């Protein structure tokens, strides 16, 4: 199935949507404590190019040594960098989840790696990707159970995208597996996706990989505001705010799922996070692109066309507050009224 790898949600040529269902950021944000940290960031000087204090802080937060922390300009920047590293190692393939963020495949192709969707079989000599909760479906990733069972045997590079782990509203994360890299992007859970900063946690014994990835990075890969964001992320006050926001998001999510059902949309089950996929009624499939454009231009409502994830005739919706849900309901019903007018 063809996938449109470079589609993204959020701000577009029309500006910032009034009701942006197309991204997975925490709609309770921006986090006040993180925002205050950014406003007081020391932007007059370069950050420490080695990020010593920040790496120690992030290592302490996760219970690993600072040496295992690799700073990144964003998750996408790290995706491209580790794909370049995989190619330099001589790997020839990237194994991706069945449905996934397009930058995994885009980076693989840039660096000459053949892309394969995860079939459940062991694939050695490859860069392997997993994401949990997955995007766009928000579900558990079946690859993690296999990684746990084989305890790291037989794969060259395995990377778990933890972008949505802090926004998990149900259940517990899958058990950690040996030899797996983790990529963390706190800007989503803090409701501040405009600030680009991320980091990866290397598995034990990955010193050579760490050195190679750091050598591939530009100088000062994270700026002062990114440093402030990552520092704030580790504080108890911010973690408490995140915990409270998950309670609110769960309430909004339940209401939004009910709304979709009332509109005649089929919600794909199993989402654990602050977003889910819904399929429109069959009568709407042929005109889906035009309807999405109309919602965006006439009502300031942006939905994410899930065809870019290999799910045609469906949309991914981030959970938004009641006012945005009401706007979506009114716009959809107005469109149905116009369509049914003789």
Detailed description of the structure:
This protein is 38% helix and 14% strand. It is an alpha/beta fold. Strands 2-8-7-6-5-3-4 form a seven-stranded mixed β-sheet, with helices on both faces. The protein has a four-stranded antiparallel β-sheet with strand order 9-10-13-12, with helices on one face. Strands 1-11 form a two-stranded parallel ribbon. The longest helix is centred in the C-terminal third of the chain and has 27 residues, at 236-262. It is globular and about 60 Å long. Residues 1-5 have low confidence and may be disordered.
Total number of helices: 10
Globally, the shape reads: globular
| Radius of gyration from CA coordinates | 20 Å
Q: What's the order of the H and E elements? A: EHHEHEHEEHEEEHHHEEHEEEH
Strand portion = 5-15%
Low-pLDDT runs of 5+ residues are 1-5
Query: What class do helices, strands and sheet pairing give?
Result: alpha/beta
Work out the helicity level.
25-40%
Q: Main beta sheet, described?
A: 7 strands, mixed
Chain-averaged pLDDT: 93
Number of strands: 13
Report how far the terminal alpha carbons are from each other: 38 Å
Query: Which strand order do you get reading across the main beta sheet?
Result: 2-8-7-6-5-3-4
């Amino acid at each position: 199935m063809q996938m449109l790898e470079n589609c993204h949600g959020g701000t577009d040529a029309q500006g910032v949507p009034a009701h942006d269902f197309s991204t997975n950021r925490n709609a309770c944000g921006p986090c006040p404590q993180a925002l205050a940290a950014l406003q007081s960031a020391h932007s007059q000087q370069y950050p420490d190019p080695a990020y010593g204090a920040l790496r120690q802080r992030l290592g302490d937060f996760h219970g690993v040594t600072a040496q295992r922390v690799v700073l990144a300009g964003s998750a996408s920047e790290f995706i491209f960098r580790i794909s370049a590293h995989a190619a330099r190692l001589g790997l020839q393939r990237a194994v991706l989840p069945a449905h996934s963020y397009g930058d995994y495949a885009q980076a693989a192709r840039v660096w000459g790696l053949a892309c394969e969707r995860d079939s459940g079989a062991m694939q050695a000599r490859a860069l392997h990707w997993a994401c949990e909760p997955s995007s766009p479906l928000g579900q558990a990733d079946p690859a993690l159970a296999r990684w746990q069972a084989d305890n790291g045997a037989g794969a060259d590079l395995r990377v778990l995208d933890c972008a949505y782990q802090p926004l998990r509203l149900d259940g517990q994360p899958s058990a950690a597996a040996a030899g797996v890299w983790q990529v963390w992007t706190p800007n989503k859970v803090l409701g501040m996706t405009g600030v680009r900063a991320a980091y990866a946690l290397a598995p034990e014994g990955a010193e050579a990989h760490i050195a190679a990835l750091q050598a591939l990075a530009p100088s000062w890969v994270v700026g002062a505001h990114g440093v402030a964001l990552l520092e704030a992320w580790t504080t108890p006050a911010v973690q408490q705010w995140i915990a409270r926001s998950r309670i609110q998001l769960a309430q909004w999510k339940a209401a939004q799922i009910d709304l979709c059902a009332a509109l005649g949309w089929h919600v794909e089950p199993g989402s654990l996070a602050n977003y889910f996929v819904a399929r429109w009624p069959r009568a709407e499939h042929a005109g889906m692109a035009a309807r999405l454009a109309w919602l965006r231009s006439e009502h300031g409502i942006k939905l994410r066309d899930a065809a870019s994830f290999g799910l045609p005739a469906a949309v991914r919706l981030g959970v938004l507050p009641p006012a945005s849900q009401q706007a979506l309901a009114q716009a959809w019903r107005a469109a149905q009224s116009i369509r049914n007018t003789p």
